[in-house]
Design a protein that fits this description.
The complex is a heterodimer of chains A (112) and B (116).
Chain A (H helix, E strand, L loop, with lengths): L4 E3 L2 E5 L4 E6 L4 E9 L5 E8 L4 E4 L2 E6 L4 E6 L8 E9 L7 E2 L3 E6 L1
Parallel strand pairs in A: 2-11
Antiparallel strand pairs in A: 1-3, 3-8, 4-5, 4-9, 6-7, 7-8, 9-10, 9-11
Chain B lengths: L4 E3 L2 E4 L5 E6 L6 E7 L6 E7 L2 E4 L8 E4 L6 E5 L8 E8 L10 E2 L3 E5 L1
Parallel strand pairs in B: 2-11
Antiparallel strand pairs in B: 1-3, 3-8, 4-5, 4-9, 5-6, 7-8, 9-10, 9-11
Amino acid sequence: SQQGEEDPQALSIQEGENATMNCSYKTSINNLQWYRQNSGRGLVHLILIRSNEREKHSGRLRVTLDTSKKSSSLLITASRAADTASYFCATDARDSSYKLIFGSGTRLLVRP
Amino acid sequence: EAGVAQSPRYKIIEKRQSVAFWCNPISGHATLYWYQQILGQGPKLLIQFQNNGVVDDSQLPKDRFSAERLKGVDSTLKIQPAKLEDSAVYLCASSLVMFSSYNEQFFGPGTRLTVL
């Protein structure tokens, strides 16, 4: 079963707007990662946030982590058409063998 | 730096046939993963190797799926016999760090399997 669940399942915004997607998980984690998947292509790692971190930035990306609520959010600022993709959160469970468990993803459409 | 290579990119077979996928990870990456991604879902880990040893294969349907990583470099994933529900994209990924989840996984383009 998948640990992370993204919300919303789909999001459509205008170019230049901000996009926020959320991820909830069930068990304690060491870290949480976000990946992007463009249509027909493999996944690309975006950012990793450790369990002792609350916020992290990378370019136009901002990730927050609330371990008390077992949730994370990914904010993409000033979105571009090229940001159109599916976004997945992935968690490692502390009782797992270092594997990542992916959520079901948020499909983002950025309209030009 | 070359990325993770996978072949073939597409495969169409009939149910009960066999199929094999090949993956060549990034040079020097000790950890190799095979994922199954069904349409509309996130990737699900099938098997994880550290060098040529299996670390986790708890979600691999061992009655029909098998995987090997001889010499700790490239890997093959086989399905025999295939079922309709095996239709999915099979992703291979690799990572540099061993025995740690604090590592970025690099994914190949995947093989899209259609079972008719």
